[in-house]
Design brief:
With 123 residues, the protein is mostly beta strands. 11% of the residues lie in helices and 44% in strands. The chain has a single domain, classed as Immunoglobulins (Immunoglobulin-like), CATH 2.60.40.10.
């Protein structure tokens, strides 16, 4: 690496806002239970280096086997001092032929891309 390139890389590392380095939101735990006919309740634990309103985990989703979004839990505020955190979503309707779903988290900067969890659905 020549001196000019190294100097530019160092400069960018210093001036880029730290918010860009917080990383993506990760799903680290999921508890699912059946709550009715084809209805499920999810308790999902997410971790993310929330830094305030400019960069925080802002939702998580239940994704069906075909890739469709079956349910969304909107996270209406940053969880700066509460990491990891668990939030619930009830009344998620899932077809009887689905055996498992995937939970993914979203953050306000990186969108999707963090760790997901696939879970078997209880019968």
């Amino acid at each position: 690496m020549n001196t000019w390139t190294l100097r530019n890389v160092l400069f960018l590392c210093i001036i880029l806002p730290p918010v860009l380095f917080a990383g993506e939101a990760d799903v680290i735990d999921v508890d699912v239970r059946k709550s009715g006919d084809h209805l499920y309740h999810f308790d999902v634990t997410v971790t993310h280096a929330d830094e305030g309103w400019d960069h925080y985990a802002d939702k998580w989703e239940v994704i069906g086997p075909d890739g469709s979004v079956l349910g969304t839990r909107t996270l209406s505020h940053p969880h700066v001092g509460e990491q990891p955190f668990t939030r619930s979503l009830s009344g998620v309707k899932i077809s009887e032929d689905a055996m498992q779903v995937t939970i993914r988290a979203h953050d306000s900067i990186h969108e999707y891309g963090g760790m997901t969890k696939s879970v078997e659905l209880p019968k």
